[in-house]
Specification:
transit peptide; Alpha-Beta Plaits; ribonucleoprotein; Small ribosomal subunit protein uS3m; 3-stranded mixed sheet; alpha+beta
Length: 115
């Protein structure tokens, strides 16, 4: 987190673009579109709760999504949203999707390293 929050989309967005290693195929562009869809879906589902950028990790046939979430809802609602998000994304992406979430007490607790 060496970049301030308003620069992350400009300086670190390339981390998830064209992550496919297939050559001469349409997969890199599909991966970029899927990543945009996943980020918008998670941001909309976890409305006003996401405190950091959403990191998408693809390993073989599995998609892992990591983020920092604010502790503003009850654990019961959080477990429902986790299951809801994983189930719908797994159905749409046609592969297993796992959420790896960490919670923080307040948005101000997230530390950004300014250089």
């Amino acid at each position: 987190m060496a970049n301030p929050p308003h620069f992350i989309g400009h300086r670190k967005s390339w981390n998830s673009w064209n992550t496919s290693t297939l050559k001469d195929a349409l997969r890199p562009s599909q991966t970029a579109i899927e990543d945009v869809f996943i980020r918008k879906f998670v941001t909309g589902t976890w409305h006003a709760l996401v405190c950091s950028e959403i990191i998408i990790k693809r390993q073989h046939n599995t998609i892992r999504i990591a983020a920092l979430i604010r502790q503003a809802i009850t654990p019961r609602k959080m477990y429902f949203l986790i299951g809801y998000t994983e189930e719908l994304l797994s159905y749409w992406m046609q592969c297993p999707v796992t959420l790896e979430l960490q919670t923080v007490g307040d948005r101000k607790d997230v530390v950004f390293k300014y250089i």
